[in-house]
Amino acid sequence: MNKDWIQVWIAAVFEVLWVIGLKHSDSLLDWGGTVVAIIISFSGLIMAGRKLPVGTVYAVFVGLGTVGTVFSEVLFFGESLKLEKIILVLVLLTGVIGLKLVTDDEPTKGGAS
Question: Residues 6 or more apart from 98 whose CB is under 8 A from it?
Answer without folding.
Answer: none
